[in-house]
Amino acid sequence: MPELAEVEFFRRVWEPAEGLKVICASANLEKRIFRKVKSKSFPKCLVGTHLRNSFRKGKQLCFVFDESHWLGLHMGMTGKLRYSHDTKEEFKYNYLTVFLENDHRLIFQDPRLFGKVLYEHSKEVPTWWAEMPLELTDASYKFTQMNNFLEKRSRSPIKSVLLMQEGFPGIGNWMADEILWRSRIAPFVKVSNIALSKRKDLYHATKEVCMDALEVIADGWKRPPDTWLFNHRWSDGGNCPKTKKPLIREKINGRTACWSPAWQTYH
DNA sequence: CTATTTGTTTATCC
DNA sequence: AGGATAAACAAATA
């Protein structure tokens, strides 16, 4: 589920807790989402600290407690963050719970366990946070940067390249399909076969889908308009909002791609 | 029983 | 060396 905009939505779920003190913390450390956590004192080391800041880069989240406790979270395929006041409310698959002074709980749940927790106690910014690539929504992310990445991946289908986080941080399966639909490029097209002018369409569609997704989903998880591919792509039987003809669903390198054959004619 | 899933990570081949 | 691809990870849902 969580791509750039959904992850930003979850950052905002925990954001209201900024300034609050941690009373208690518990984690199911045997679960594989904690496989990168080395500290023996996690998560008790958070007790007594205050949540100070929350950040997102691509699909990665970082919560900072007292300017020195860095908690990195990745939602994987099924991760969710909750901010719960009801102490009787029990959720399955709560693997990290932080109890706050206002009787609210910060909860990370992840049934499928493809998520990842990172933790570092340091005054310095951890490497895993400092080394994230530039955001696609940043004004300094230019066409040449995107094109340089495409040049290195020229033998792959464009759909697969859009899913590579080092080049397209935050893009996931539905956003990649939306970008290709808006720029009218079929997902199986090899990057080397995409002309310069078409790459510019791709660049603008990438920026646009990121901005639109953040506006609609990060802010209240509203239902996207039917003019997007989004509402039509999830199962067999959907029709293209442009051509009104059936969409095609097919695996490309193991991931389902959905596209409109008459609309995405570029190949 | 089977097939499917909005994501990485690792192994292997080229 | 580094790019491309398949399999692995784990568990729910249809």
Description:
- With 267 residues, the protein is α+β, with helices and mostly antiparallel strands.
- It has 2 domains: 127 residues, N-terminal domain of MutM-like DNA repair proteins, CATH 3.20.190; 117 residues, Helicase, Ruva Protein, domain 3, CATH 1.10.8.50.
- The chain is built from 6 helices and 10 strands; from the N terminus they run αββββββββαααααββ.
- The strands form 3 sheets. Strands 1-6-7-5 form a 4-stranded antiparallel beta sheet, with helices on one face. Strands 2-3-4-8 form a 4-stranded antiparallel beta sheet, covered by helices on one side. The protein has a two-stranded antiparallel ribbon with strand order 9-10.
- A hairpin with a 2-residue loop joins strand 9 and strand 10.
- It is elongated, with a radius of gyration of 20 Å.
- The protein starts with a helix and ends in an 8-residue tail after the last strand.
- The relative contact order is 0.14.
- The mean pLDDT is 95.
- It binds a DNA duplex (14 and 14 nucleotides) through helix 5.
